[in-house]
Amino acid sequence: MEQNGLMKSKSLRSESLFEGQKHEDFEFASFFRILINRYYKSLLIALLICFISVNFATAVEIKVWRFGGILAEHNWEKKKITEWNKQNSDVQIAWSNQDWATKREKVISAFKSGQLPDILVMDGPSIPDFVRLGVIRALDDVDRNMVSSWKNRFVPEIWDTTKYKGKFYAIPTYVDVTTFLTYNKAFVKTPPTTWQELKDVAKNLKGKSNKIPMVIAATKGTNDVNLWEGIAYANGCRWLNEKGDKVVINDRGCVDALQLYKDLVTGGLTEDNPQEIDYYKAIVLLLEESAIMSQSMSWLKAIDSEVKGSKNPDYGLTVFPKNANPTGSYPSANVIMAPTSAGMLTSQSKNVKAAMKFLNYFASQEFQAGWDGDPIPGRVPATKENWASPDVSKVYPDLVKLYNKGTLFNGAVPMPAFPGLVQMETYMGEALQSVVMGQQDVQSALDRVAAKSQRVLKKVSK
Gene Ontology cellular component (predicted)? Predict the structure, then answer.
């Protein structure tokens, strides 16, 4: 029995030792599994951090400077850029709005210091000077196939506004078009189509009310000069000859266009001091019902949305009356136009492929859709699809009718754009003022502009 007890005791101790060993093995296994789990979790976290870090490290930032624009444009662009950045982790857009008034100075200064962004969004008339200086690159030189894929989306005449010497430099979103006649339909049932009809309608309106029959904008401002250029180009006037080596702004077609201004002023058919009324003020006079007719550009509707004193007259918008028999040496232009919000690739971009990826989006209807009249009012859209939108018909019923007839852009040409034009237009602004104030006769004023401008052309052509 003692032996049996001893054997039982040994058996119990063995079982106890075995159970203890099992417990120790279990604890060790559990500890080992914990270590492994922690290791893999740490490894997973490390890999995740590494992946995120690499992803951020490989993400390319494309800087964009956007000059000018109205609030509705800024809001739309902010929305689309936010969407882009969420959907494209490899290319992040840093978009910033810049002051329109100092656009050329800022760009040229940044170019000289090597601090240009990747993309500029600004006006088409700056293209010739920027090409001459080497600020921007031709997009079709970078990726001809990509550029070709965009072309059919755009109105052909608008597409051509950003071409220079056969190269395509910028993607337009809309164009400013000039020159139009805006008229109060309560007073003018049928708008005039010729210069003589314009004078006759204005004379008929004079004295019938205390309102100004016809407002002309004749300050030194660029917009006012552009208004005159649109009227002059329709009369066969041009700044330069076909070779581009001679200033011809004193051609007969230009002289007669400026004479129209003088005739309206001396006939008492305009405001008293047109040299003090710029384009914006001229439109305000019409919207406040102080005037019956006015010159205008296509972005009249943008002004209309901002004028608090507007009495919301029922007004019409049509192409400005033309000389029944154009007297200039060059073809009559129906209207002249220029994009003022066009995407350009700078010569200093270090991420051309990424920048072109974004410009491909910039040219897409998804991005362009905002310029169909809603949410952005008062812009003449660049794409064909936007012209088919019911929203643009609400904003521009008169222009949509002309577009659908095929007459709005028929004979349209780009606004003047060549090196030295900015300085030349300051001379033209001075001439406008001197003529409407009776300080110079028309021919002498334009001869002087031509002589001074020829010197500028010679300088920039060296």
Answer: ATP-binding cassette (ABC) transporter complex, substrate-binding subunit-containing
